[in-house]
Amino acid sequence: MLEPCFTVQPWLNRPxxxxxxxxxxxRVPFPATSYMGRTLSRLEPAxxxxxxxxxxADPNAVEALLDAAFGADRRGRTAYKLREGMKVLPELSLAxxxxxxLVGALQCWPIALHSDAGDTDLxxxxxxxxxxxxxxxxxxxxxxxxxxxxxDDRESLVLIGDPEYYGRHFGFIADQTANWELxxxxxxxxxxxxxxxxxxxxxxxxxxxxx
Length: 211
Ligand SMILES: CC(C)(COP(=O)(O)OP(=O)(O)OC[C@H]1O[C@@H](n2cnc3c(N)ncnc32)[C@H](O)[C@@H]1OP(=O)(O)O)[C@@H](O)C(=O)NCCC(=O)NCCS
Prior knowledge:
The chain contains four helices and eleven strands, in the order E-E-E-E-H-H-E-E-E-H-E-H-E-E-E. With 211 residues, it is an alpha/beta fold. Coenzyme A (COA) is lined by residues 69-70, 128-130, 135-141, 161-162, 164-165.
């Protein structure tokens, strides 16, 4: 198996998206030089993965990737109800490419916790999906890490996912979500938040932002 090697499109390092940047237009030229802090030699064989804005990807290809990762029945999941009617956050959503093949996608959405005290804006992370043929090679981690570098001054993050993955690698925990309600079935242990030290309301109903 080739060792993955990641590059990040310069676009993603800007605070806001550039308009009209087509896929490939501003790719970082090969060789990409490091993976997990280790410098790779030019001669070392590597699986070159490029991260770019999700807007570069054909929406149909994204849907096919999500079907492959989660199954075609995924649309009925509670996570989809949480962001019904919302538009994906383009500055926090990204794609992973192996050459021109889409091998990963991460989407973020504006949502809110609605409580008696008012609405608390949050960001829903997910779906995070990696092509089944390319899973367990660091692509999920690379997309999550890149997304997290852009969230420092943003709202707290929420997701429904495996704590063994999102807790261990990215610090998502269920401490503050224990009494939240969702508009559909979910496993309590998989409702996770990453607040950056902020306190979130004890109770509330999670759902799309209003108005
Ligand atoms: C979950 C997913 C996004 C992870 O991305 P990935 O590129 O395959 O995983 P990475 O290479 O970044 O991370 C691999 C590490 O995370 C662990 N890991 C991956 N998925 C995991 C999961 N669902 N639960 C626990 N640990 C997991 C692996 O064991 C591995 O650990 P190691 O580094 O100690 O060996 C990807 O596998 C995927 O799309 N899966 C299908 C959708 C799914 O099942 N999602 C469930 C979580 S919401």
